[in-house]
Specification:
By secondary structure, this protein is an alpha/beta fold. It folds into two domains: 190 residues, Rossmann fold; 189 residues, Rossmann fold (3-Layer(aba) Sandwich). The protein is built from 20 helices and 14 strands. The protein has a seven-stranded parallel beta sheet, with helices on both faces. Strands 10-11-9-8-12-13-14 form a seven-stranded parallel beta sheet, with helices on both faces. β8, α12 and β9 form a beta-alpha-beta unit.
């Protein structure tokens, strides 16, 4: 009701917002349930009758990527059951199409949490169970699934201190919302404790660990990595400082440190991967304003001279870039965005730097810092000092990378535990 009222009142603002945003223009009809779902959904339902699909949902890029190993296991475990996948954002949808083809039967956009949209898409999909990865929990969707007697499992869940107090403030509502889940698979005992304080029975909570540790990485060979370096016009002698998943405000801080580093290491190159690739052009302008020769990755195809800064305007390439980097900075951490996944550079044994706000990856970042595989910094001065030390001391850089990889490698197993919970819930539906 609140959503409908809010949309009605805000309609004069919403329409221009949709018209001026490429992302929203391309997703709004799908998310309203007006555009048709993939034909495979209706065809499979007609062919398989009561054999209803498993519906997996992930919000955006990070959640989609983290869900890949789990989805592959679900596909191999439930061979006779269709698997459909939804994402909420355009970039999440695109990544899902790149990573999940062959592992899911259909990919579509998750509906806006309006009853008419939710009911329409739920009736078309008719899931046996729903699996939500990490977040994107909406009341109308949850209550519609409850009305249809469809069990919903929340996997890889975490509940930060900030989120816990937010939910506690509206306990009457949030408790009902979380009680709509049949099972909640949490990352840690601390997360389990916070969910229990919200009134969730212990029997519905299972500590499975973080499925991000089970991420599979294709370790490219030397030839492939050299080819990537050549495509970026990076000389063999050059060292790379990679800033992954950056947000607005972070690039200026990084450039401040980079300008000082360049005076000591003339061949050092900075590669910036904005979290939102649509920001690439504006980030490139910021770099040029700071006095650097900066180009987007697309511009490199025109064989321009070797740049100081490369701004990546593509999705799906960050992992490979971490593989060729010498030092990795994880973005979303110098501004209040909760940070991004530091396990991606850890998987390639890279020394890791991030800011003080890694609240979305608190357990992982703490483990990396405690092991010596990562260092937390406050500002440009901190970045400058650490990067300078690592460029000067190759042995320390190597040791940090090794420690980071050990953390990544030692905490696997969450996918198997999560899969056991899914098997149990799905077996009850089948029975």
């Amino acid at each position: 009701m609140l959503l409908v009222i809010g949309i009605t009142i805000g309609l004069p603002l919403i329409i221009p917002l949709v018209l001026t945003s490429d992302k929203r223009r391309k997703t709004i009809l799908h998310r309203l349930g007006i555009s048709p779902l993939p034909k495979a959904i209706s065809q499979n339902r007609l062919q398989k009758g009561n054999n209803r699909p498993i519906w997996i949902h992930a919000l955006s890029v990070g959640e989609v990527v983290s869900a890949v190993p789990l989805i592959k296991k679900i596909k191999s475990c439930f061979k006779h059951q269709d698997i459909v996948f939804s994402a909420s954002t355009k970039t999440g949808f695109e990544i899902a199409n790149n990573l999940l083809k062959g592992n899911v039967d259909s990919i579509f956009f998750f509906p806006y949490d309006l009853l008419v949209s939710v009911k329409h898409i739920a009736a078309k999909v008719e899931p046996a169970i729903v699996i939500i990865v990490e977040s994107d929990i909406w009341p109308n969707f949850m209550f519609e699934m409850k009305r249809r007697n469809v069990p919903v499992i929340l996997v890889n869940a975490r509940l930060s201190k900030k989120s816990y107090f937010g939910y506690k403030r509206f306990l009457f509502f949030s408790k009902r919302l979380f009680l709509s889940f049949s099972k909640i698979c949490v990352q840690s005992s601390e997360d389990a404790h916070r969910f229990s304080l919200l009134g969730i029975p212990p029997g519905r909570i299972t500590i499975t660990g973080n499925i991000k540790f089970d991420q599979q990485y294709d370790f490219a060979g030397r030839k492939e990595l050299n080819k990537l370096r050549q495509s970026l016009l990076v000389k063999p002698s050059q060292q790379i400082l990679l800033a992954g998943s950056t947000h607005s405000g972070e690039e200026a801080i990084l450039l401040d440190a980079f300008s000082r580093l360049k005076k000591k290491y003339l061949d050092l190159i900075l590669i910036i991967v904005p979290r939102n690739p649509d920001r690439a052009a504006s980030v490139c302008r910021i770099c040029k304003s700071a006095g650097f020769f900066a180009v987007t990755m697309s511009d490199l195809e025109e064989k321009k001279p070797e740049p100081d800064v490369i701004v990546v305007d593509r999705i799906g390439i960050l992992k490979m870039l971490y593989a060729i980097a010498d030092i990795a900075f994880v973005g979303g951490s110098l501004v209040k965005c909760g940070g991004h996944n530091p396990l991606e550079p850890a998987a390639f044994s890279r020394p890791i730097i991030f800011g003080t706000d890694m609240s979305d990856f608190a357990d992982i970042s703490d483990m990396l810092v405690e092991s010596g595989g990562a260092i937390s910094v406050n500002d440009a001065e901190g970045i400058y000092n650490i990067v300078l030390e690592l460029l000067t001391d190759n042995q320390k850089a190597g040791e940090m990378g090794s420690m980071a990889f050990k953390v990544f490698n030692a905490n696997k197993g969450a996918v198997k535990k999560t899969l056991n919970v899914i098997k149990f819930v799905n077996s009850q539906v089948v029975e």
